[in-house]
Amino acid sequence: MKVLVTGSNGLIGSEAVEYYDSHGHTVTGIDNNMRAVFFGSKGDTIWNLQRLQKTTKRFTHYGLDIRDRKNIFDLFRENRFDLIIHCAAQPSHDKAGEIPLLDFEINALGTVNLLEATHQFCPEAVFIHMSTNKVYGDAPNELSLIELETRYDYARPEDVHGINEECRIDRCLHSVFGASKTAGDIMAQEYGRYFGLKVGIFRGGCLTGPSHSGVELHGFLSYLVKVAVTGKSYSIFGYQGKQVRDNIHSYDVIQAFESFRSDPRPGEVYNLGGGKRNSISVLEAINRVQALLGRNVQYRYEEQNRLGDHICYISDLRKLRTHFPQWNITRSLDDILTELVQTELRCQLVGV
Predict the structure, then answer these.
(1) pLDDT < 50 positions in the chain
(2) Which of 103, 128, 273, 276 allows an S-S link to 90, with CB 3.0 to 4.6 Å?
(3) pLDDT of 317
(4) Could you write out the three-class secondary structure of the chain?
């Protein structure tokens, strides 16, 4: 099988490269390290590319820009891929407001370029689109919440599983990032429903793992652990640090993609996160990391929350589990945090 992974230096992209390479498939990666443009040297992903080039056997990397339609089309024409996993994006809720044109070109136009290349040159391929829960804007904040000592939670029993795919995606505040990702999300659905391509749309919550180049503007748990290990200060933005996210390991993300590949449903949308068991507030995460390190984590509180941010977001996984009963979460929150801490401690030890 010929596999294309966009954003192949990133968290989910690199996990996909490793998984499909290890299973004997030919893997092509596209990544021009735009994360370093967005976030500076701390967001640079070249280290991850170099790691992949050392550890994989059938992986070829191209430093292409997904906005470059001609070269993208040429690549598809020459390779005729069987599986496309589209992870490349401008990923930051906050950064998008500073670069709205670039954000839209990457998240919307770049996505359409890939979809149309698939349509023209490999229409039988399966196309996985990595979307985001930010397509829901701040509509999830309209659910009734209760404030507990260290977190917010859903007040009504019928909301216990979290946010499902019926949550509306319009008539709310998204952030510029949420709007551009919504455009790409809708076009991906349309290429599935209108053109009949085998497109699956996965609306990710907090995705994490040891290959994450976390920065303050993107990568909650990864960045928190980096700050804690290096003794720097973490900033909490609003909601008293009680805002909640569900976290999913990159391995479990790829297993969800693989489940869809084996039984594709054109144009279908799935919420993808860690679910209730892997949910945690910022305050709770700080406490967990402190316990793992055996020392306090420095942090400061800023009253102003991020514009359009979710107060409590937990992914309802019931649709995904119903369609693909073989899939489940395999990495607990404790597993994730322990791995992140151990990885960061090793990196500090060798000066990476």
Answers:
(1) none
(2) 103
(3) 98
(4) CEEEEECCCCHHHHHHHHHHHHCCCEEEEECCCHHHHHHCHHHCCHHHHHHHHHHCCCEEEECCCCCCHHHHHHHHHHHCCCEEEECCCCCCCCHHHCCHHHHHHHHHHHHHHHHHHHHHHCCCCEEEEEEEHHHHCCHHHHCCEEECCCCEEECCHHHCCCECCCCCCCCCCCCHHHHHHHHHHHHHHHHHHCCCCEEEEEEECEEECCCCCCECCECHHHHHHHHHHHCCEEEEECHHHCCEEEEEEHHHHHHHHHHHHHCCCCCEEEEECCCHHHEEEHHHHHHHHHHHHCCCCEEEEECCCCCCCCCEECECCHHHHHHCCCCCCCCCHHHHHHHHHHHHHHHHHHCC
